[in-house]
UniProtKB/TrEMBL annotation:
PANTHER family named among the record's database cross-references: ASPARTYL AMINOPEPTIDASE (PTHR28570:SF3)
Listed GO MF terms: aminopeptidase activity; metallopeptidase activity; zinc ion binding
EC number(s) on file: 3.4.11.21
GO biological process: proteolysis
Keywords: Aminopeptidase, Hydrolase, Metal-binding, Metalloprotease, Protease, Zinc
Catalytic reaction list: Release of an N-terminal aspartate or glutamate from a peptide, with a preference for aspartate
Family, similarity comment: Belongs to the peptidase M18 family.
Entry-linked Gene3D superfamilies: Zn peptidases
Protein's recorded name: aspartyl aminopeptidase
InterPro entries: Peptidase_M18
Amino acid sequence: FVHSARLDNLASCFAVVNALLDDDAALEDSEKAHIIALYDNEEVGSRSFSGAEGSLLNEIIERLLELRPSQANTVSSRSAFTRSSFCISTDAAHAVHPNYPDKHESRHLPILNGGIVLKYNASVKYTTQSTSGAMMKKLARCAGVDIQEFAGRNDTPCGSTIGPIVSSQTGIESADLGIPLLAMHSIRETCGVADMYDSVRFFKSFFHSFHHIKNALVDYSE
């Protein structure tokens, strides 16, 4: 296990950065744009220059479109760009506490070292939908990574992530997932080492294989 403050959300930052750096050479000739956005101020609402409600990601998309000489930077080209893209909002998930299992839904009990957690919310506090969730499960199988699911109780308030902000501002399909933590927001948060390794492997698979999985899902001839 790992015990530390700020595992939420430095653990996810560590996983995605290492996944990209580990496969830097393999991705060098990729035609896809692989972007990691490490936003500030998520815990206080994201409404800042460096937060998810800032303009940075949309500006990056516009600059990427300007680098494509075959297409003008028009509304239609931007729409095609974003609709073929995908975003993973990776924030930590609440693991079930052994002393308070009633705080979780009985069929949604993420445990430490049980795999990364795919998160759902009926009020769209998380962005995972049926299609994006199915693609994440397929990706996890390809990576050999266990995956758990979390949905908050109807009678219990639930926090949110930057996923809904980014997805609604850009028009990019998204899913929410992350590693499970105990004592989130405390000075001694706890996560599982196996989950950290799985998270890195999952994101390496995402950078390599996701476009194949998405194309297979929408191409019914396969």
